[in-house]
Design a protein that fits this description.
mainly alpha
């Protein structure tokens, strides 16, 4: 884990990282699975897994634990969930 640019200690950096990961598991990943379920009706399981991998590994969606970019995936998760709900 890289040290914080703002001078925070290792405990604060670990807390930010763990908070980001837990929020992504709570909001972003379920929203992606819902989107695949809604829009991937005719696709095979292999195609759905491929698209999930492509979305999760794109650079804009990688987990970033910097203070400024910490909640990007949370906002993206809310937007995707809103778009996929009827």
């Amino acid at each position: 884990m890289m040290p914080c640019a703002g001078g925070c200690d290792q405990i604060q950096a670990a807390l930010m990282c763990n908070q980001q990961i837990s929020q992504c598991y709570a909001v972003f990943f379920p929203a992606l699975l819902l989107c695949l379920r809604v829009f991937g009706g005719g696709k095979t399981v292999q195609e759905k897994q491929w698209w999930l991998l492509v979305v999760l590994l794109q650079p804009a969606a990688l987990l970033i634990d910097h203070g400024h970019f910490q909640y990007n995936n949370i906002s993206l998760g809310f937007a995707v969930r809103h778009h996929c709900l009827p």
